[in-house]
């Protein structure tokens, strides 16, 4: 099979297409013929050696996949050959999604949403599960709550806004000036974070989803009501946790995990017309380097590779 690999860490130029052995599904796994693979910021961090999840190269990047079942390993009964599926298998271990074929645990994928094509389905798993798990599982989101989503035009953010809206929340989101209209179109009240401190513009909220962490999480704490929840995708200072404890605010530092139930929930929202992943641009597999270079421009939504 053809796959994007790298033999050293570095910039987008280290990515190249090469022939690799076809994977074989083990017991409990399926072989997916990949139609599209999503690209996430974590991919760039691993490629550059800043986040060594996969150890030293060579390795094949990527976790988001959408495609069709090409073969079944022993003991798999939930799928049949030809089924359309999507998922984020194995994270944070190597899933090798930037390839024509990928072996995946059957319990870490789900039926692809029927309402969207493979490119849009591949844009959904990692970012969508991060938003879903952050808001619903860690945040305990309830209808009628006020929610603040930071970076509302980003991969996680634009999906989080839609998920929160679909679950009956009042949503506020931060964005840069060139992305305000897009986030507003998702149904959120939008705060331009370049115009002063967002704290002064937001008011009290029940739940914050913060993808930045650190000092930003400390600032976010200021808008959480007493007894509310702050969910961060990155590290939170001990001092921030201490302040939160004084106000009975729950602080959750989360990392996304494979989750078939969550994937099914996302697919239902998509097919109900309540969730639409935005693809900023799709690149063919052999232009993975160009796709990673485009990722550095921080586009609206997601980037995908088509296979």
Give structural notes:
This protein has 307 residues and is an alpha/beta fold. Helix content is 28%, strand content 27%. It contains ten helices and 15 strands. The protein has helices at 41-47, 118-122, 125-138, 155-166, 180-185, 198-202, 215-221, 238-246, 260-271, 288-295, and strands at residues 2-5, 16-19, 29-39, 65-72, 84-87, 101-105, 109-111, 146-149, 170-175, 189-192, 205-210, 224-232, 250-253, 279-284, 302-306. Strands 3, 4, 5, 6, 7, 14 and 15 form a seven-stranded mixed sheet that branches. It has a six-stranded parallel sheet with strand order 10-9-8-11-12-13, sandwiched between helices. It has a two-stranded antiparallel ribbon with strand order 1-2. α3 crosses α4 (155-166). The longest helix has 14 residues, at 125-138. It starts with a strand and ends with a strand.
In summary, what is this structure?
This protein has ten helices and 15 strands.
List the helices and strands and how they pair.
Elements: E1 2-5, E2 16-19, E3 29-39, H1 41-47, E4 65-72, E5 84-87, E6 101-105, E7 109-111, H2 118-122, H3 125-138, E8 146-149, H4 155-166, E9 170-175, H5 180-185, E10 189-192, H6 198-202, E11 205-210, H7 215-221, E12 224-232, H8 238-246, E13 250-253, H9 260-271, E14 279-284, H10 288-295, E15 302-306
Helix pairs in contact: 3-4
């Amino acid at each position: 099979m053809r796959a994007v690999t790298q033999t050293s860490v570095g910039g987008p130029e280290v990515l190249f297409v090469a022939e690799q052995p076809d994977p074989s599904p083990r017991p409990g796994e399926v072989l997916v013929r990949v139609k599209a693979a999503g690209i996430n910021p974590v991919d760039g961090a691993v490629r550059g050696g800043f986040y060594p999840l996969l150890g030293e190269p060579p390795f094949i990047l990527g976790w988001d996949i959408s495609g069709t079942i090409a073969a079944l390993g022993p003991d798999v009964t939930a799928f049949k050959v030809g089924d359309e599926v999507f998922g984020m298998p194995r994270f944070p271990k190597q899933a090798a999604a930037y390839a024509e074929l990928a072996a995946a645990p059957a319990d870490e994928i789900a039926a692809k949403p029927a309402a969207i094509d493979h490119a849009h389905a591949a844009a959904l798993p990692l970012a969508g599960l991060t938003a879903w798990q952050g808001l619903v599982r860690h945040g305990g989101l309830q209808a009628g709550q006020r929610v603040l989503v930071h970076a509302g035009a980003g991969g996680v953010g634009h999906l989080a806004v839609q998920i929160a809206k679909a679950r009956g929340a009042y949503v506020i989101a931060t964005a840069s000036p060139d992305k305000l209209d897009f986030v507003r179109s998702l149904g959120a009240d939008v705060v331009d974070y370049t115009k002063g401190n967002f704290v002064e513009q937001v008011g009290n909220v029940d739940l914050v989803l913060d993808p930045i962490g650190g000092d930003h999480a400390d600032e976010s704490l200021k808008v959480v009501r007493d007894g509310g929840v702050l969910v961060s995708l990155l590290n939170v200072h001990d001092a921030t946790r201490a302040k939160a404890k004084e106000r009975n605010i729950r602080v959750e530092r989360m990392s996304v995990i494979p989750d078939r139930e969550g994937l099914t929930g996302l697919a239902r929202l998509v097919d109900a017309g309540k969730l639409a992943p935005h693809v900023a641009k799709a690149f063919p597999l052999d232009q993975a380097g160009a796709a990673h270079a485009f990722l550095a421009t921080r586009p609206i939504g997601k980037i995908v590779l088509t296979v």
